[in-house]
Design a protein that fits this description.
126 residues; alpha+beta; 2 domains; five-stranded antiparallel beta sheet; 5 strands; 19% strand
Length: 126
Amino acid sequence: MGRAIGFIAVILIAAFGMYYYISASKAVSPANGVPQATVDTTGVEQDLLQIANAERRHWATNNKYASLDDLISSGELQMARTTRGPYSYSVDATASSFVARARASNPPQGAPANLSVDESMRVRHD
């Protein structure tokens, strides 16, 4: 009798653990999305902030903003490639402002197709 109660307790605890795990994974996933979309979006946001920080450093030393290729070639931006998953990066720079963009022609389910950051350092999902 004691073993049966112990077995039932283990089953109930395992069921609760599975329910909690499923609920937690839904909470961190985008609406109707998959966890990979969350990983891709977070990585793209970090890359855009890295580009924006490189633009700020470039502005501090040269009093102007630069293109993505110029930032990479000057060594101010350590980025091996200008893509992440389905996203590709670009920078629209003028002498007094910049907008770094990430665009995906076929974004993962639940992920935004366009993300951007400007000199305000605020990431936007378009």
